[in-house]
Amino acid sequence: QVQLVESGGGSVQAGGSLRLSCGYSGFTDAYCMGWFRHGSGEEYEVVATVDTRGRTTYGDTVKGRFALIKDNIKNMLDLQMNGLKPEDTAMYFCGAASTCGGLLRSLYRGQGTQVTVSS
Q1: In 3D, which of 109, 114, 119, 107 has the Cα closest to residue 40?
Q2: Quick one: average pLDDT of 62-75?
Q3: Cβ atoms within 10 Å, residue 67
Q4: Which of 1, 29, 93, 118 is 20 to 30 A distant from 22 in Cα terms?
């Protein structure tokens, strides 16, 4: 059974840090996994992905500030977020897809965890 469960969201002041965690099950290493977010606008934005070869890619808006950590033993995908900005405020989702390009369209996603950054 496929399952993804996020945790670790919350409220923080600008410049602060948060670590989001995603526990997953029912996937093999044949899946791309990552985090994406939905802020106040209509668009969803891919934050970071790790593909089947272990290559990590970050969105331009988070490069240098966020880090993706995948633990294949514990089946965890964490997102370490540093230097948070008010524009990072969003609902964050953990997801999986057969290709990283399909992450936003995938039905494999958790319920989301809210991150709020105040100025």
Answers
A1: 114
A2: 96
A3: 15
A4: 118
